[in-house]
Amino acid sequence: MALDRWIAFVILLVCVAYGYAAYFTMDGVLPPIMQRSPIWPSSFPKVLAVGAILFSLAIVLGLEKAPQKEDAADINLSRLGDYNVGQALLLLGLMVAYALLLRPLGFLAATFLFLFLGAFILGERRFVLMAVIAAIAAGCVWYLVDAVLGIFLSPLPGFINSLASGG
């Protein structure tokens, strides 16, 4: 089985577990007043689970349009050394570091560093442009999440927040 079908199979298994949780475990803890609502907190996860299951099944079963000839974009595992595996592994490591440093550094600094270093890993060398774009992107995302959506997202490092709160 091709690599894309294996990935789709793993996604299918995850989505089946996610769908099971959405259909059978999330609704049992709803208070009685919410059980009469037409839209429950599990409505969107249910739609996501069904859609992802259908799409991953289409790939696993080969229902998507198969290429007639070997496409240059297909991954050939016998030529794995020809790909930029190092870049991919560095980006994965950077994602893990971002998740671990999000609270200690704060959202703005962690996101800025993630975007800046990610662009550097991918080969961009215009440092001033990278810094400006990373700063604008981090600031805009923080503003949208914090001010527009109303979800508190600590912009500053954890030690500054603890000093500001007096603890």
UniProtKB/TrEMBL annotation:
<keyword id="KW-0472">Membrane</keyword>
<keyword id="KW-1133">Transmembrane helix</keyword>
<feature type="transmembrane region" description="Helical">
    <location>
        <begin position="83"/>
        <end position="101"/>
    </location>
</feature>
<dbReference type="Pfam" id="PF07331">
    <property type="entry name" value="TctB"/>
</dbReference>
<feature type="transmembrane region" description="Helical">
    <location>
        <begin position="107"/>
        <end position="123"/>
    </location>
</feature>
<feature type="transmembrane region" description="Helical">
    <location>
        <begin position="130"/>
        <end position="153"/>
    </location>
</feature>
<feature type="domain" description="DUF1468">
    <location>
        <begin position="6"/>
        <end position="153"/>
    </location>
</feature>
<feature type="transmembrane region" description="Helical">
    <location>
        <begin position="45"/>
        <end position="63"/>
    </location>
</feature>
<dbReference type="InterPro" id="IPR009936">
    <property type="entry name" value="DUF1468"/>
</dbReference>
<keyword id="KW-0812">Transmembrane</keyword>
<protein>
    <submittedName>
        <fullName>Tripartite tricarboxylate transporter TctB family protein</fullName>
    </submittedName>
</protein>
